[in-house]
Amino acid sequence: MNGQTQTASLHEPVPQLDLAAQYAAIGGEIRAAIERVLASQQFVLGREGLALEAELAALCGVAHGVGVASGTDALILALRACGVQAGDEVIVPPFTFVATGSAVSAVGAKPVFADIAPRTFNLDPGELERRVTPRTRAIIVVHLYGLAADMDPILAFARARKLPVIEDAAQAIGASYKGRPVGSLGDVACLSFYPTKNLGAYGDAGMAVTNSEPMAVRMRTLRNHGQTGKYVSSEPGLNSRLDEIQAAILRVKLGHLAEWQRARQERAANYTKLLAGVSGVRTPAIPANCEHVFHQYTIRAARRDALQQYLAERKIGSTVYYPVPLHLQPIYASLRHKAGDFPESERAAREALSLPMYPELRSEQMATVVAAIRAGLSV
Ligand SMILES: Cc1ncc(COP(=O)(O)O)c(C=O)c1O
Predict the structure, then answer these.
(1) Omega before 322 within 30 of 0, i.e. cis
(2) Which amino acids bring their CB within 6 angstroms of ligand 1?
(3) pLDDT band, very low/low/confident/very high, at 109 (cuts 50, 70, 90)
(4) Which of 119, 163, 239, 309 has its CA 20 to 30 A from that of 15?
(5) C-alpha angle 22-28-30 in degrees, rounded to nearest 5
(6) Ligand 1 pocket: which of 141, 194, 240 to mutate (most atoms within 8 A of CB)
(7) How much is the average pLDDT of 300-326?
(8) Is 209 helix (H, G, I), strand (E, B) or coil?
């Protein structure tokens, strides 16, 4: 692949994500919802937000939803609701978006990394025993790319030590594990509605969901300046409220989520079929009893960077989520990790490549992507 001259592509470009296609389909509904909020002139902590909290708690199979300004804030408030404080340790996989770790740092705690399982890209339950210490106060699991982590052994480990489990479900809304929805698996779960997510707002937004009433009450207080009464604050909080316009947009999109999820799953199955037998590529695993919602369709490719460049030259979008694992990020230089400390996370960072994936992706576009992968790998 290296050193090839660029060949003109005979096909239309295939973006990695096409939000404009989605907006073309639902723009009318979205504008009506925004108009409804404008007519109400209620912009924060109103009817739309309350309704969305109830709808998403129901989707996740729990009692409470607490709308906040981002998925990162949901993680910060969840950590605080779990009682995590400065000096505590929180176990986190290093192969994730930086927010999973930086939320731990934001509450003054230390992320302690635990490597991933190679087949799923998710936290390896067998790593926990090696990483737990007397200072461990919580475990964050990430359901990366839309696939639930292997929760039963993680929960058994945590329950035996009375450690709370926080689900970073930013990428996995709608997914399930052994028939139980993501969001109901741990003690509290965090959703992100960043625009590119399966349920994406038109700006930043997020939510924490939980079955625990005390945790929900605490997070509601913390998202609103720690106020327990009007202009009475009991502890330092944030201004992290989900606004009404985003909530109204998200409610429209929530009505389409199941159909979009099916479309993603069909496209994932099609990719897997088309890529069967292509040597040099490993397609995503779907463990038994898991419903994967394919926020990303992520392959492993041995010569990943060259393949990505080959695709880019043919105007086919792809993204590396994530090229640098957390333990090797500058933000965690003070933890003095080195290459080799978490080999599976490092290998995933070298091999993972997310292909174009969105509900409107057409089969001929997928055929184009796969033909280019075959060609690129055989050069
Ligand atoms: C795994 C993961 N965790 C946390 C976040 C943070 O969410 P947000 O961007 O809404 O703050 C994201 C998304 O950006 C994510 O993908």
Answers:
(1) yes
(2) 70-72, 96-97, 99-100, 142, 168, 170-171, 192, 194, 204, 206
(3) very high
(4) 119
(5) 70
(6) 194
(7) 97
(8) strand
